[in-house]
Amino acid sequence: MEAVEINDLSFAYRTSAQRALNGINYVQGEGEAVALLGRGGAGKTTLVRCLNRIIPVLYSGKLQGQVRLFGRTLSTEGVGQLAGTVGMIFQDFEAQLFSTSVLHEMTFGLGELGLDSREVGERIAWALSQVGLEGFARRDPATLSGGEKQRLAIATVLAMRPRLLVLDEPTTDLDPLAKEKVLEVLRGLKDQGLTILFVTHEVEDIREMADRLALMSEGRLAIQGPLEELLFQTDSLEENGVRPFPLARLRESLQLPSLPWTPEEAHRFLESRGIRLDHRRYQENVQKEQENRESCYGPALLQVEEIKFSYPNGVEALQGIDLEIRQGEFVAILGHNGSGKTTLAKHFNGLLRPRQGRVFLGGKDARSVDINWLAQQAGYVFQNPDHQLFAATVEEEVAFGPRNFGLRPPELQHTVAQTLEIMGLKGYEKCDPFGLTKGERQRLAVASVLASQPRLLILDEPTTGLDYQEQRRMMGLLKTLNEAGHTVVIITHSPWVIAEYAHRAVVLSQGKVLADGPLREIFGQEQLLQKASFKLPTITSLGQRFGITPLSLEELLGWLPACPSYHK
């Protein structure tokens, strides 16, 4: 039996004259796992919302065509009637959480299935264990980290044991090892016959799980095919907002007939063909980095001395943090979900005050200065841009901060115009912020902070939910700002983002600094990073098997001497 059959499906939202879906024809077999890829706005979320009648029941518009699930035509069903058939993890996973405890959150959906208390308890225990949330039953979801909330949302759906599991960007907030654990669970469920449709921008997430890839573009299914075939169509993937698999790019660059998928196997494959890396050039590069390090940065901008912080529920989030960040640095804070990353960063501009210890910004004790001064000196961009956007227009959003800090026309208009141009939002001045795409809203959130000209710019997961081209654009903007003199601190779980843009890494674990130093040195300590649930980028992991630590594919290729045996 086919699990999903879609025939000539089109849809236009009530507020738009343009079709979000345009003549979709799609078939997915029972027990098959398919990855749905494409740039932001391609129609992926719209398509999966049609599978459980969120469209058109909750999002109205003009729907044409037919959807069948397991032989059943969907026509008049409500969303709740399909809950036992289709389980869905939303891209905005926080929208799925509403109860006052993890236990209540888990129980809510199960209560609609008519199960006895014993089975309910067994399902809850099983689902929480699958996502690493054992012992969290009494926690209030509001007190969880972003990654823990995402895992909880996944657990609530797993406990329902649907026949079709639809996941819309389900691992964006997970640390690399937590992500791997969830993906392992999904692979196990697939082996048991569960049908899975996985929306993602990261092919590395699904290369060991998906049977097939489906690539969307402008509301249409542009390409469909077996994973092994499409995974190596790197140009097509990148053109459609998907980051190509790094080892596919390496194979392409070396014009190899084949290349295994894992760093370990790829290393053995390359060595067997006599391929080596130039250690002399690598050491010269590292030496130059060390020589330039001291001259690149100014004096200390931020100093954190032995700070401790506990939340009202008793969770001790920070346990004596010492940290110094110098003017002009680009620092990445990394660590497992719940390690204290966001809590620490919120101390940098006074959003949180330490229970013990002190924070100095620009040499001033944060306790002795006005909160407005702190906010102007250290701008904070939230993980979810919708948590900080509120104005009626883009122009008003960007003007709010500098106006409140005393800037008046014509300087205010000049600052707003300049900031919008820097962030690629020129021409959007009169637009409603909530009518923008996720990537545009993310850039607007940065613009609203940047307009106040902070010396320190703090961004919590700045690439979450963005397609590959949007991620590159965001990180390119941050790199430009850093080179112009802004000190940048990012919190992210994305290994390649850290590798290619940050200068230094601060590794947190259980509210303590586990390691702090130049990025290449930190990335050279794979076992230490595993303690913080961090997984090295694929290219870095491959390079270390040759005895070096590359931070990008370009670096790795630069240390490969010419070798005629590549093409054999």
Write a concise synopsis of the structure shown:
With 568 residues, this protein is of the alpha/beta class.
Topology, element by element:
Layout (H helix, E strand, L loop, with lengths): L1 E12 L7 E9 L3 E5 L6 H6 L4 H4 L3 E9 L2 E2 L12 E4 L12 H9 L6 H14 L15 H13 L5 E5 L7 H16 L3 E5 L12 E6 L2 E7 H4 L3 H6 L6 H9 L8 H10 L6 H18 L3 E11 L5 E11 L3 E6 L5 H5 L10 E6 L2 E2 L5 H7 E4 L12 H11 L6 H12 L15 H13 L5 E5 L7 H16 L3 E5 L3 H7 L2 E6 L2 E7 H5 L2 H6 L6 H7 L8 H6 L10
Parallel strand pairs: 3-8, 3-9, 6-7, 7-8, 13-18, 13-19, 16-17, 17-18
Antiparallel strand pairs: 1-2, 1-4, 4-5, 9-10, 11-12, 11-14, 14-15, 19-20
Helix pairs in contact: 3-5, 4-5, 10-21, 14-15, 14-16
Overview of the molecule:
With 568 residues, the chain is α/β, with parallel strands linked by helices. 36% of the residues lie in helices and 22% in strands. Helix 14 crosses helix 15. The radius of gyration is 24 Å and the shape is globular.
What labels describe this entry?
single chain; six-stranded mixed β-sheet; 568 residues; alpha/beta; globular; 20 strands
Please count the beta strands (DSSP E, at least 2 residues each): 20
Strand content: 15-25%
The strands making up the biggest β-sheet line up spatially as: 6-7-8-3-9-10
How many helices? The count is 22
Query: Distance between the terminal alpha carbons, to the nearest Å?
Result: 44 Å
Q: In which range does the helix fraction lie?
A: 25-40%
List unreliable stretches of 5+ residues: 564-568
